[in-house]
Amino acid sequence: MVQNNIKLSSGYEMPVVDMGVWRAGSSVQNLVVEAVKLGYRHFDCAADYKNEKEVGAGLAKAIRKGMVKREDVFITTKLWNSDHKHVRAACEDSLKNLQLEYLDLYLIHFPVAIRHTGVGKTDSPTGEDGVLDINVTVSLETVWHHMEELVDAGLVRSIGISNYDIFLTRDCLAYSKIKHAVNQIETHPYFQRGDLVKFCRKHGIAVTAHTPLGGGSANTEWFNSVSAIDDPVLKEIGAKYGKSPAQVALRWGTFSTGRFLCLRGRCPAILLHHSEDIHSFSALAALL
């Protein structure tokens, strides 16, 4: 697997394609080792995925076996909503779980603070009325300045945001001392978010797509629409150029519109098949 990198506004390089571990389950330790073997060098984690310890064990095993060095991998994880008043403690907890001395990228998972339930506990508590118990005493600006302190302390190399719309992204630029290097959002052929992507590119913010193949089964269950890999238009384009529908969607997302990919799944080999050879798929550009 050939990894392409981009340089972030922080000055550090980030591999374009990463493997996300959401819903990867308890078998993620072996999955990480297998992914490293196949050439993955960027892993997208989060405290809320509840498997940082397993990811850390997998990384430690791969490093111990000499498959990779720490400086060769790029590790992303995320601050959960209930820890917005406990940024450093939450970061240190993630570092401990991942068996790392520093994070390559730390993101604010969602632009909302909820009631704190304890560092390491990624609950989403509700009030007596059954509504999410939002904490209105902490601002996103305050949270961001605590994120900046992590960079100053050497715990994190790059910081960023996730699931921020164009207005929140603009606001973060206004109050930041250290610019957010990344905005990780939902974006795919069904939900393109062109204005937000263009805004981020204009201001030197990398956009990573956490669902580059669309909503998957959620499309059918919630929206009564097909998954991107079953879309007849993508199938037709893929058949014409000898590519899979997934490769068409990824080529659209990454190399034609400036998004970078977070692939998720329980089989690294399948993810590798989806992402391989899309670099040379230049014929698609004429269709966009």
Provide structural commentary:
The chain is an alpha/beta fold. It has a single domain, classed as Alpha-Beta Barrel (TIM Barrel). The protein is 36% helix and 16% strand. It is built from ten helices and ten strands. The strands form two sheets. It has an eight-stranded parallel beta barrel, surrounded by five helices. Strands 1-2 form a two-stranded antiparallel sheet. Helix 4 links the parallel strand 6 and strand 7. The chain starts with a strand and ends in a 13-residue tail after the last helix. The mean pLDDT is 86.
Any descriptors?
NADP-dependent oxidoreductase domain-containing protein; two-stranded antiparallel sheet; TIM Barrel; NAD(P)_OxRdtase_dom_sf; alpha/beta; NADP_OxRdtase_dom; Aldo/ket_reductase_CS; 288 residues
| Largest beta-sheet characterization | 8 strands, parallel, barrel
CATH class: Alpha Beta
H and E string:
EEEHEHEHEHEHEHEHHHEH
Overall pLDDT: 86
Total number of domains: 1
What fold name goes in the CATH topology slot? TIM Barrel
Oligomer: single chain
% residues in beta strands: 15-25%
Distance between the termini: 26 Å
Count of DSSP H/I helices: 10
CATH superfamily: NADP-dependent oxidoreductase domain
Tally of strands: 10
Class per helix and strand makeup: alpha/beta
In short:
This protein has 288 residues and is an alpha/beta fold.
Sequence-ordered SSE layout with sheet pairings:
Layout: E1 5-7, E2 13-15, E3 17-20, H1 28-38, E4 42-44, H2 52-64, E5 74-79, H3 87-98, E6 103-108, H4 140-152, E7 156-162, H5 166-175, E8 182-185, H6 194-202, E9 206-209, H7 217-223, H8 232-241, H9 245-256, E10 259-264, H10 268-275
